[in-house]
Design brief:
The complex is a heterodimer of chains A (165) and B (781).
Chain A: H1 4-27, H2 35-53, H3 55-62, H4 66-82, H5 84-87, E1 96-97, E2 100-101, E3 104-105, E4 108-109, H6 110-137
Antiparallel strand pairs in A: 1-4, 2-3
Helix pairs in contact in A: 1-2, 2-3, 2-6, 3-6, 4-6
Chain B: H1 5-30, H2 34-38, H3 40-50, H4 53-57, E1 62-69, E2 74-80, H5 82-105, H6 112-131, H7 135-153, H8 160-191, H9 196-200, H10 212-226, H11 235-238, H12 244-253, H13 258-270, H14 274-297, H15 301-322, H16 327-356, H17 372-386, H18 392-404, H19 409-433, H20 453-471, H21 473-489, H22 505-522, H23 524-538, H24 542-564, H25 569-591, H26 606-624, H27 628-648, H28 652-676, H29 686-712, H30 718-731, H31 736-744, H32 746-777
Antiparallel strand pairs in B: 1-2
Helix pairs in contact in B: 1-3, 1-6, 3-5, 5-6, 5-12, 5-16, 5-20, 5-21, 6-7, 7-8, 8-10, 10-13, 12-15, 12-16, 13-15, 14-15, 14-19, 14-23, 15-16, 15-19, 16-17, 16-18, 16-20, 16-21, 17-19, 17-20, 18-19, 18-22, 19-22, 20-21, 25-29, 26-27, 27-28, 30-31, 31-32
Classes of the chains: A mainly alpha (165), B mainly alpha (781).
Chain lengths: 165, 781
Amino acid sequence: MNTLILRTVAPVLTALMLLFSVFVLLRGHNEPGGGFIGGLIAVSALAIYGIAFGVSAVRRAIRFHPMAIAGSGLLLATLSGLISIFAGVPFMSGLWIYPEVLGVEVPLSTVMSFDIGVYLVVVGAITSIALALEQDSEPREVVAEPPPLRAKRPRKPRPKPKVEG
Amino acid sequence: MAANVPALTFIVLFLPVLAAVLAPGLTRFLGDKAAWVLALAPALAFLHFCTFLGEVAAGEVVTGGYAWVPSFNLSFSWFLDGLSLTFALLITGIGTLIVIYSGGYMKGHPDQGRFLAFILLFMGAMLGLVVSDSFLMLFVYWELTSITSFLLIGFDHEREAARRAALQALVVTGGGGLCLLAGLVFLWNITGVTQLSLLVHLENGLRESPFYLATLVLVLAGAFTKSAQFPFHFWLPNAMEAPTPVSAYLHSATMVKAGVYLLMRLNPVMGKTPAWEILLPFFGGITLISGTLLAVRQTDLKLMLAYTTMASLGLLVMLTGFGAPHAVEAAVLYLVAHSLFKGALFMVAGTVDHETGTRDLTKLAGLRTAMPITFGAALLAALSMGGLPLFFGFLAKEEIYAALAAGNPRAVFFTGLAVAGNALMFAIAFAVGLKPFLGPRIETPKHAHEGPVTLWLGPVVLAALGLLATLFSALAHRYVSSPMASAITDQKVTVDIAVMPHVGLPLMLSLITMTLGALVYWRLDTARALMVRALENLGPGPDRGFDRLVCGLVRLSVAITRFVQPGRLEIYITATFILLALTLLVPPLVFGELPGMPAWPQNLLVQEGAFLLIALIGILAVVRATDRLTAIVSLGIQGFAVAVIFLLFGAPDLSFTQFMVETLSVVILALVMTRLRLSPRDHRPVGQMLFDAMVGVACGLGFTLLLMKSVEAPFDNLLTDFFNAYSKTIAHGANVVNVIIVDFRGTDTLGEIAVVMVTGLAVLALIRVRAGKRAGSGEGR
């Protein structure tokens, strides 16, 4: 399935889908969407990228081990539930703040960070499964490098993975 | 005393456990000297219990306790009467000496701290056992002694024999403990009380209950396994794999007497029935005789002592159940005497082993000059065990004969047993306590010399106590024997036997015993050869039987596991789906709950019908597909069609998710297929295909019926209304589905994402394992 058309389209498609997945995640509270669906979209995006360029390219692109992403998501979700301790309300109670950012009221909540946690768990766990399955099925030969999405420059290795969210 | 006595007792009960926690650290700092510090814990406990002596001798009972689990009406409560106080004193008193002895015996051992911790832990458990008032507390402590005993027997865990012995002891005594639990539940149900103190002083009709025999058998199973009664005796000699302080403490002086303690404790409520007076003397008598006979065969000092311990326990059980007026008093005297002399002799055997490097009787002689103090202690203890005048063992034996000897055939039979058993024990006593020290010196593996004070202090004190208790017998009886006998019989008993022998039948029997014993001692080698030959003819004993049983259990479990877990995915899935079909189909058929025929929808829209049709075509394509890839993609068609139907019926979230799940399913299934290198086509035979199809159709039918039945019932709008009403106002979200997922039922979601995460990890591990295997074997599959 390593066709020229797919290889050309895949990076754009993946980027769009990932963007869309975040959009779906964030709109979920009021419109159809949410962390679970968003996560699944992101996994599909990564799957397309993987089909086009191979597993190692995906691994490089997401930087962290997918299970680390899933783990950080679970941690974030748990912490979102635990914040309620400090407010003296039961575990997992939704708490909201409405800070003004540049004159716009932005509603932020533990519910949202919880949903982001769900998103990360889904992305991490399912990507991990897909990549592991794909890894062994693909031949060990060198896979075509993805075209650079931006001007090439040497990547500095980061000292340690940061917990996202 | 102004001190708060119950609080103090509570602390004392946990003092050994506290010392156990400190033991490893303390041993690291102080080396073997730590034992002296740690011995303070049991010594203090001993002194604390001594303060109750006067009160208990006056016939009072010391009780106390705290609420443990108030909601279940459970309390951590203790009561001390003559019986438990005597046991508590033996446990803490001998315990002090044992801890000191362990310091010398285990000197330089890298795990000395651990050993001392285990011993002290056991002490705490045993102490709790004898003072427990509530049934549950008794049971918990009972099992704790089994577990600590397991740890101590298996202390030398690098030897297989020790591991086997530890496991055997745990299985036998732990299993007995479970029987005891059942027995205690019976007791509770029959009498309605959960406290021993109430049980003893209650007229409760236990003996008349139809469940009396069942209760008795269960309690006896607990007591007999713990106290190594025939046919459960085999674990005790094997337990000699433990270091000698353990044998001296657990397997002669204290733990093995827990069964006897229980019988004595229950004597007022369960005793004096035909079953009690048949079962106890019968099993006790067999244990007594077989124990002494087996002891004669051995040449290992510790094993000889172990078998006589078993015999002594048999004697105690026999006396407890005998029912004659003085039998209980005899049991009391013998129990105390036995703890003293057997503890001393075990420690002597350990010292001899420690200093000479062997404990084989045939390789030891002439140690009297090299180890004079040990010899003295050994001789005193042997004299008491042999039951010679001036020693506590003599008083016990006189009382035994006084209790047993009577005109009826039953009494004559058991008197004969007692005489034979005691005579053989007399011989063993001197074989252990005298023989290694007499005669010309034999070279031993190590150069023999007297051990340090830690090694002879214990035996000397215990052996001397056996003498002092007789000389001051009035005092001993007043504070120990009489209160204890009173507690066992639940009436005022005064023990008054003194050192001056009365001429009569008991003394005659004593003389016969000594003569017989001396004869056996003189001809010990002949007797041993005789026993060896006899046992060879008898064939394998229960010890071998235990191995067979364990082997059989393992084989049975393997067979069951192989049957239940054949390791073939098809079988698992077939079984799961058959079960699913049965659960879905059988209840509606049996209870006549089948749904009615639904009405054909009148206003079916064209697009709805179209997508329904597409879904059906997808399914048909799956079934008719010749290769797997086509089947997987066709399954996707059906899934997408269903997703669109969801969308049409106003469930965008569900539909959205369904789309994504279907997409990913196709991707992952295709990956799995290539990953597992399945053959592209289905190779099932036709019969198998038909069967699988049947199971599939049955499941589908079941689900259809279930759904139709659910739809038949009027729809309850309660939850819908609630969520619609409050989603925006409480949770600030307009999308009800998402609000439910992340807010109203957020904890559920947290659990679900944890499951997703764990599943991911599991799949990853599975794939890695397979990859590793393939790399290792180099095969294609």
